Amino acid sequence: MQELEALKGRGLLIHHWDTDGICSARLLLPCLAELEVDTMTPALGNYFLTGEELEAGRGYDFVVIADMSLPEDNIRHLARSAKVLIFDHHLGRVIPGVFHHNPVIRGGNPDRHPSASWIVNEYLGQPVNLYALLGAVGDHEHRIRDNDLVYPQIEDFCQQHRLTFHHLMDMVHLLDANYKIGDRKAVERAPHQLLAMDGPRDILDHGEWNRSRKKLDREMKRLLGQPVEQVGDTMLLKMNTPYNLISAVTRRLAWDSGRDTVVVNTGFFDREDQIYVRSTRGNLQPLIQRGKERGYRCGGKKEVLGAILPRAETGDFVAEILAFLNENHSGGKT
Ligand SMILES: [Mn+2]
Predict the structure, then answer these.
(1) In which order are the strands placed within the sheet that holds 10-15?
(2) All structural domains of the chain
(3) Ligand 1 centroid, distance to 105 Cα (angstroms)
């Protein structure tokens, strides 16, 4: 807590656009209430800051980053003119010279630290609350039920507040609807709206979020109705959608099939494709490293990889990904 308390002046809070990022920002904002703080999320789909965004980041005394593993050169750039604090649970390296609070990187059990919101809430020394928990449910969905370290606390909370797990999932889908529909401003409003809200009902009944969600449900149905290829042990789907649904589609395919899954979306950027990989058993760290070596914007966790790459190189990298996944599953490497 002392690192936040020591902050002075004007600050910028940068957060991921998903439920975990929004809830992490919601938890951090009250601690910065005495200070002048702007909030922002990077251009949706970008796991880095553009030149313009870096420029906009100047002139602040401090920058707090929540639930995002931004490239090290971005961080170093920000740290030249501001104090930088990172709260995160993504894989990567400890970034020297800044306050980098990420127990997962330091060898902590990822099950103990299921989301950035959870990490932030523990750092603040607060009891489990709706926002700590929504971030964890957002990042893991129903899989969080297999987490013996965290799920009992979620169950307790639900019981006390007369909520079901289904209610929590509904809230996650409503918060995530903002980025999936591509409305960056709505994402940036969300942490402030949550601050002004009075509890779960206000989230569940939010008009704009519900309208976006309905549109997205229809598009998800269309995308999941498409034929999926199977290459060795791996599922492969190529799709074309302007919405930010690649991680949701990948999850559904991977979890329904129980297999490693690769999804390519050609509809989000003009000249680049999105690739998303979800592995059931393997460790994707070598592939994330490989993507970075190839010069792509690439990141992830143990079980997921997201990459943005020039369209002309998609076929090549997908082939490499499929070879890696299938080799790992045939017992070659572990
Ligand atoms: Mn997260």
Answers:
(1) 36-40, 10-15, 62-66, 83-87, 99-101
(2) 2-207 (3.90.1640.30), 226-329 (3.10.310.30)
(3) 14
